Amino acid sequence: MRVSLIHRGAIRCSAVALVTFVVASGAFAISDRQVARNFDAVEPAVCLVSYSSEVRNPNSGESSRRNTRALGLVVSAKGLVMVHGHMKLQDSEPFNIRVEIGKGDDTKSYGAKLLQKPADVNVCFLQIESKDALSLRHVKMSERKLSLGDEIMIVGMLGESLDYARASMLRRVGSILERPRRTYCIDERVPFGAVGGPVMNSAGEIVGVVGFDLTAQEGGDLYVRSGHPLVYQTKLLNDYIANPQSENEQDDAWLGVFTQPLTDDMAEYWGLPKEGGVIVASLVPGSPAISAGFQRGDVITEFNGAPIRARQNQEVLGFTKLVRETGVGEEVEVDFYRDGEPMTIGLTLAGRPKSANDAGEFESETFGITVRELTQDVRILMNLSEDTKGVIVRRVKPGSWAFLGGMRPGVIIMDFGGHPVTTPEEFQAAAAKVEEDKQKEVSVFCRVGSRTRFFRLEPRWGSATETP
Questions:
Q1: What does the pLDDT look like over 380-419, one tens digit per residue?
Q2: What are phi and psi of 442, to 5 degrees?
């Protein structure tokens, strides 16, 4: 099965799911006048988004901060802005978000908040925060489909050296992938400043935006086509534009299982039909799945009447999405195989527990350390039992008393200065008590990996002659 990529008169082929190819000439039918007309219509809605990110190294636990700028697209008069999905990754959290709309002396700058990130398309949405009612120039999108070889116009943004000027570029639909969903591939690479930019067809209708899927290292598990510029079609975006959802409105349903696809090899080994499914690889303590009696090795084939046919890793997240969108408190039936025998279990879905991104934290400026509560996902990642109590070190300020004492991100504090600690609030109280008593030496009992150890902090309270 082969499909070609259009590339200025040459054919490049790759093994994918569509049987067709087109050889395109270098000329474009979109006229200069039409380019200018399309550009003038869209440019007011293209804006500059600037933000800082706290990036965590998953191996060391250490964090660093970066300042980034990206193209934003205003998609509602009330200030909803769409930006590329790499703004928020699994180990990167944006803050200090600003949106600049307009150009020259007419530029206005607004603060903005990040909304809940869609699960099925790699974009982010921001809501501009303004005391005054907004009525912004914005784009309206068409759900008209594209065809192989269609000319498209993209509006992007140039770099800092060119004052982030808006720019147009012409490309073609070089390939169409039909599975697992219809995806348009652009025939040539595009500059990073075009990612998130509007894509127009030859009639000037906005039919999507430029995007890149996430790699597995960035947290991508669904529809992963990383490394090649795509057109995220309007059909994937309209529901999120019509119904923007804040992070604190998120109320996802949760089953509490980690799964892997039922490949044909595994099905043959277990004597099961080669129709796909998801294998329960592990279960989260206290989850609905545990309460209902699921076990490791169960193979789920139907969830709430919907067949589960996952055979590849990228198809597993479709099951997660199905569970999430079913709704908290819903009673469902799950069909599965256990030891080759078909079974059915009824259960009630619960709300997804707090994740590390939502966890509360406290920063002690005195000791130069920031701690965060232990959430279920962190426990699973670090293989911690439920009886492990404490707070996890999120950041350590270089040169601080905690840093000089050898403490680093990823350490779990269980006792600080003789005060047991299980929450950021308890750590805050413990740090305040230690500071009040001005202990000459602060003993910190921690878990580091699979072992426990003490750290000794030696704060200098005031002058060298000062004693407790």
A1: 778 888 889 999 998 899 899 999 999 998 899 999 999 9
A2: -105, 120
Do 231 and 265 reside in the same domain of the chain?
no
pLDDT of residue 246: 67
Please report whether residue 299 resides in a domain: yes
d(CA 361, CA 16): 46
Annotate 1-30 with b (16+ C-beta within 10 A) or e (fewer): eebbbbeeeeeeeeebebeebbebeeebeb
pLDDT tens column, 336-349: 999 999 999 999 99
Name the region of 189 (left: φ>0; alpha: ψ -120 to 50; beta: rest): beta
User: Are 160 and 34 part of one and the same domain?
Assistant: yes
Question: How many folded domains does the chain comprise?
Answer: 4
d(CA 411, CA 393): 5
Torsion of CA 225, 231, 236, 238, to 10 degrees: 160
CATH number at residue 83: 2.40.10.10
User: Higher model confidence: residue 26 or residue 402?
Assistant: 402
| d(C-alpha 453, C-alpha 413), whole Å | 10
Q: What is the C-alpha to C-alpha distance for residues 356 and 58, in angstroms, rounded to an integer?
A: 13
Q: For 140-166, what is the HEC assignment?
A: CECCCCCCCCCEEEEEEECCHHHCCCE
CA distance 164 to 285: 50
Q: Is the pLDDT of residue 278 over 90?
A: yes
Whether residue 124 sits in one domain with residue 74: yes
Q: Name, in order, each residue with C-beta under 8 angstroms of 464's C-beta and a sequence gap of 6 or more.
A: none
Structure tokens at 179: 């599975």
Residues of the domain holding 111: 46-129
Q: Which two tokens stand for residue 81?
A: 């802005």
Q: Are 201 and 219 in contact (CB under 8 A)?
A: no
Strand, coil or helix: 213: coil
What is the spatial distance between Cα 349 and Cα 200, in angstroms, rounded to a whole number? 42
CA–CA separation, 382 vs 395, rounded Å? 17
pLDDT higher than threshold 80 for residue 214:
no
- Name the pLDDT band for 334 (thresholds 50, 70, 90): very high
**Are 264 and 173 within one domain?**
no
> Same structural domain for residues 115 and 180?
no
Is the domain of 383 the same as that of 263? no
